[in-house]
Amino acid sequence: MLDLKFIRENPDQVAQGLDAKGVSVDIQALLDLDLERRTLLKQGEELKAKRNSASEEIARLKKQGHSTDELIAEMKSASHKIADFDAKVGELSDKIERIALSIPNMPTSDVPVCKGALGNKVVRSWGQPRKLEFKAKDHLELASELGLFSMEKGSKITGAGFPVYFGAGAKLERALISFMIDIHVKKHGYTEVWAPAIVNRASMRGTGQIPKMEEDMYALAAGEGEEKGSFFLIPTAEVPITNLMRDETIEEKDLPVKYTGYTPCFRKEAGSYGKDTRGLSRVHQFDKVEMVKFVKPEGSEQELESLVRDAEEVLQALELPYRVVLLGSGDMSFAAAKCYDLEVWAPATQKWFEVSSCSIFTDFQARRMNIRYRNATSKKLEFVHTLNGSGLALARIVLCLLENFQDANGQIVFPKALQAYLA
RNA sequence: GGAGAGGUGGCAGAGCGGUUGAAUGCGGCAGUCUUGAAAACUGCUAAGCUCGCAAGGGCUUCGGGGGUUCGAAUCCCUCCCUCUCCGCCA
């Protein structure tokens, strides 16, 4: 969420940012409510100040044995007025918060401003998209011939979009998870986290999935007979891992804090039926290794660059040709200020697949979650900047590995780096 | 699931209707002393909102929400969490 003061002082800039993100919010209405709230707040507080001093006065008079009836009567009516002011201010605060929470983060100045995905820009690529000299099989065909995973079995036990992995396919999942985490821990200095796959509502709000994306999450009830929406299956490890720091103050000397962790991820993907849903390309449950960083605001954009490199290194180790796409303002997520997607070419499906999304949220999430650090120079508490990126998303990586590393006999010859994990 | 106990400042821990934003201790910061350091002593040490050019002022906050009262950390209700014991269980 944005700083209300910032919105108050820079309404034009906010309007521009909203426009770039393709979101429409009535800023003027927000500012009107804000002004009204502050006016009422002041009046209410003046009354409270009066009441506080009268309280002391009453205590003093009582001690001295004087009558306090008159003052008490006066304060009784003052208290009623105060309650009215508080109710009105509370109502306005709720309205303001609702609007403020629906305002997306502002894109950084170097993000191309454009509608939808039109502003996306390939900034670099690595490796040559593979051309196979034989008739390439797509990952689904390969998987069913080799018995690596089954969409049908998943449909039976759960529903469409829940793959079940068998044998070498199951082992591949396990291997990839260990392989990726090892790289981030040993080479990139992240601390491994194993976190719950269910989080509460406050956590979902903290990272920004709620309110805007609530419909895309699997909601759970707290107990029997209770309404759904107290708990959610996580759509990404970003949610539990970032929320680890909610309402906490980090020592400046401990920054940056870098976590990596594996979790299953659950997404309803409502409204995307029939679109890129073949096999593993878009599923409701998949595995992912995530990287999360908490950093100082100064130079935080460099932290995004290094985060992307950390993810790229996994792809390079897996010998998967990829390209790095800087997302335009219209294609970025709600909370992101800048975002790179990593896309891998799948030679049989003949498509680029997004296997990682690396974003910087500046202080947007930190403000929602109240994650701060004490600036050693100013001695003040300041919001940290948060970042996260997939490192990487498994289902699509499996898809790409199968299609890229198939041979003419329909066998898979996995990249060298993975061999030890598959042995 | 049952029965108890408890949630107070960075931490430990008092307070149990009226100068309590909160004793005391620890920690942290600054100073005195010292060649330097330690020890000792002295002082300072919460956050958010809001008004103000500033100096500074006001309000709020003792797990969350609600209630009683002129006034609540203190009383009542409710939810959440932690601990101990019993039961159940991977």
Protein architecture, described:
The radius of gyration is 27 Å and the shape is elongated. The two termini are 47 Å apart. It is of the alpha+beta class and 423 residues long. It is built from 13 helices and 16 strands. 42% of the residues lie in helices and 21% in strands. The protein has an 8-stranded mixed sheet with strand order 1-11-12-13-16-10-9-4. A 3-stranded antiparallel sheet has the order 5-7-6. The chain has helices at residues 4-9, 11-21, 27-63, 69-101, 139-146, 151-157, 167-187, 201-207, 238-243, 300-317, 364-369, 394-404, 416-422, and strands at residues 121-126, 149-150, 164-165, 191-193, 198-200, 219-221, 228-233, 249-250, 257-266, 285-295, 322-326, 338-346, 351-360, 372-374, 381-383, 385-393. The model has no long low-confidence stretch (mean pLDDT 92). It binds one RNA strand of 90 nucleotides through helix 3 and helix 4.
User: Which percent range describes the beta-strand content?
Assistant: 15-25%
> Based on CA inertia axes, which overall geometry fits?
elongated
Topology as a string of helices (H) and strands (E): HHHHEHEHEHEEHEEHEEEHEEEHEEEHH
Q: Helix/strand-derived class?
A: alpha+beta
Nearest-integer average pLDDT: 92
Low-confidence stretches: none
Beginning-to-end CA distance, first to last residue: 47 Å
Per DSSP, the total helix count is 13
Radius of gyration: 27 Å
**Helix percent band:** 40-55%
What can be said about the biggest beta sheet? Answer: 8 strands, mixed
The number of E-state strands comes to: 16
Record the strand order, biggest sheet.
Answer: 1-11-12-13-16-10-9-4
